[in-house]
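Contributing new records

If you add data, match the layout below exactly. Sequence lines come first and carry their own label; structure lines follow with theirs. Keep one chain per record. Anything else will be rejected by the validation script.
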Amino acid sequence: MGLCAFMTLLVSCSKISEADRIIYVPPVEHDDIDVDYDVPVAPVAQRVLIEEHTGQLCVNCPDATRMIEQFQETYGSRVVPVAIHSAELGVMEPQGLGTELGNRYYQHWNITGKPNGLINRLSDGTSVVLNRTIWPAALKYAIEMTTPLDVRVKFRVSDADASKAIIDVKVLCTQEGASKSGKLQVWVTEDTIVGIQDDLEKGRINDYVHHHVLRATVNGDWGEDVSVSGFGDTKEFHYTLDLKSDWKKENLSIVAFVYSDERVEQVVRKKIKQ
């Protein structure tokens, strides 16, 4: 059953209550956000990337953010959100959180209006850009999928130069006889950024706390090729990142994911180690 058929079923079946559309799925032991880089290869559960296109002048965007927080309470580290700010209903850097990178993603996906989001880049039959009213159904479908991939990250401040960080990424095949080809994308995000935010009910909030804000890409707008085949097959990637002076190091994370033409195959988030 595809995402479109799954959501049609949820909408059309009167016996399914709203509360039943998201169920608790316990995370597996080595699916934690702080999974060690070098633990043995083993199957892991599907994690889900939520690309939240948002803006500081978007009065409905805080409601979408609260919805994502509920997802995180339900699914824990299996939900990996990234808040992508751009010029539309936003404030561009350095005054605000909007970036040219965010603009390029907003334009690439032909997004019109905010909030909007991508849930593991799954399509509803017409677009991968999904209105927040169907996020719960899309997330439930995405998180119940299976994947033969694991992605692991090490992220730390350089011992030689405190203005730089070292990033190691490992993509592993966890299933005998499986193979996957796609793109590895590596992003930098920052939590706990205090700034303005417009809210439909509260008006202008001057001390709103923004989380998982996309700051930069480490390996280009669309990443780089990766392919693994057979249990234990592993590809490693190594990067050096210049840390900008306005980033708070202790609040930085790396979000690394592998995507194909069909969907995000696997994603992980790793906080920096200082």
